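hi! just following up on the protien thing from before. the input was this:
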Amino acid sequence: MAGSLTDITERKTAEEAGRDVSRRLILAQEEERARLARELHDDVTQRLARLAIDAARAEQGRPDAPPGETMRQVREGLVHLSEDVHALSYRLHPSILEDLGLAEALRVECDRFHGVASIPARLELREVPEKVPPGVAICLYRVAQEALRNVNRHARARSVEVSLRGLDGGLQLAVRDDGAGFDPSADREKRSLGHASMRERIHLLQGEIDIESAPGQGTTIVAWVPLGEERA
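and the predicted 3d structure came back as:
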């Protein structure tokens, strides 16, 4: 009876922990959607309205708006707006995954990370199949994105290594940095949401993930997802 009670207690504790993680993930997703909505409303729509006003002034031949200068400003504004909308769209769904595949998407993400964080990110590819199932591709891509985001925010690293290779009928992604590291038991609250998101993605595809770190020894994230019968 004592053993049964212990099992029930442990199961309830695990279920409550799972519900808490799910609740926090949903809240984080809603916060991200709200932030993107604010960007669209407060930034993109305001800039479009300004461009429309400038174009109307040029069209009407207003003396305070020389047509040549106004149209130059409109053209530059449209170029910058196009770049920002493209970046926003990419954050919502990276089309490069569908166009060029997972390997090239990771290469672009490493280059983007280097440009933003000024930290070299080396990519290694080994025995990666030419075609990767969409679910596997987006899963591993998002894990890599979250890992690099954590490096930029917390690690104070000098370099990062990202590797993707075929292994045991699946794909293994590894992200290693030489940064500050952390104590998983002491730093759980600050980092658990991002790590929980990674674990949830991997587990949904019946994969495995391991996150190892220690103060002053960097962080290593290794995730493996089976390709199964979908492999092409």
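The mean pLDDT is 77.
The chain has six helices and five strands.
cheers
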